[in-house]
Amino acid sequence: MNKAEVLKQIIEQRRSIFPKDYSDTVISQEILDEILHSASLAPNHKRTKPWRFKIFRGEQKAKLALEMQSIYKETQSEQLFLEKKYNDIGFKINKADAVLSIVVNFSGMVPEWEEIAAVSMAVQNMYLTCTANNIGCYWSSTKLVDHLKESLTIQENQQCLGLFYMGNLE
Ligand SMILES: Cc1cc2nc3c(=O)[nH]c(=O)nc-3n(C[C@H](O)[C@H](O)[C@H](O)COP(=O)(O)O)c2cc1C
């Protein structure tokens, strides 16, 4: 296959795949580095490189799951609280091998939408690199991340745009 055919195939194959379909195997550090490297190659106006990714694995990931669950509990009224949703928040983070927080840094040098667009392109690069490596992934834009305190520190000129879940397939 030539380059154009390979690229077309990866773009066509890319899907959002959820943690229930991830295997329990570990993504190699080499591939994880490759995924992050692909993100850093995204186009960005004035080279502001507005993406800030924090990787959660192992114990840190387990703590993130607990914090997300307690945020859900605290921000829902008793009538709207669903035990299933509460359990699902923990299940998804624990089932993924790696979770990334997607944060945009607003430099003030270009309009905010341009920084968000650049971060989104970085996420697309990660989606495609995951696809090429048979890794399931998806972007969750849950608003719960706005309340993260222990797992994530963000500056005044930054915003968390959600979480990126990853796990090997098959
Ligand atoms: C900015 C953004 C936010 C998203 N947030 C969520 C989300 O919160 N929950 C979810 O299930 N999927 C989320 N997705 C994934 C979309 O639902 C998914 O891309 C769409 O259903 C199309 O499926 P595909 O990615 O397999 O083509 C998000 C995608 C993008 C680009």
From TrEMBL:
InterPro entries, A to Z: NAD(P)H_nitroreductase (IPR052530), Nitroreductase (IPR029479), Nitroreductase-like (IPR000415), YdjA-like (IPR026021)
Cofactor(s) essential for the protein: FMN
Residue stretches making up the Nitroreductase domain: 11-167
Pfam families cross-referenced by the UniProt entry: Nitroreductase
Keyword Phosphoprotein set for record: no
Coiled-coil regions, chain positions: none
CDD domains reported for this sequence: YdjA-like
Keywords on record: Flavoprotein, FMN, NAD, NADP, Oxidoreductase
Family: Belongs to the nitroreductase family.
Name of the molecule in the record: Nitroreductase
